[in-house]
Design goal:
This protein is an alpha+beta fold. It has two helices and eleven strands; from the N terminus they run ααβββββββββββ.
Length: 155
Amino acid sequence: MPPFVLDVLKFSFLVLLYFFVYRALRIAALDVTGGAAAGRVAASAASPKHARRPRSSAKAPRKLLVLDDRGTKAGTFRLEEPLQVGRADACQIRLGDTYISQFHARIYPRDGAWYVEDLGSTNGTYLNQRKLTGPSELHAGDQLRLGKTTLELRA
């Protein structure tokens, strides 16, 4: 093979290697720091643009039931104050699921209703099998899926 072709292949390999290392470090940094979620949290709490319209017949949730990947009850939390869900020690709901980011999602009250917001997690947050793209209103009976863990909202 000509030396020019070998040099091009070496250069291409190095570019791909550096790109891979960059992406891996970026994802790790976003997972550890919670990403740019801190700035988005304050802005989106003020005006949830993507929030669902409230259902008049739906009740506001009062409890949050945590189910692991086997469907076993892992805990119950009362909805009284804003909650952060993730693996970090700073989270009010700490989960051991490795598919969950350090700061995965936030559940907070606003105008008498409860909302959920994904905090830039790697694997996303799903409300009733639909991936969240912005803050969404929660109702009793809704199910949140974060990684392999399910959170059920109860009245």
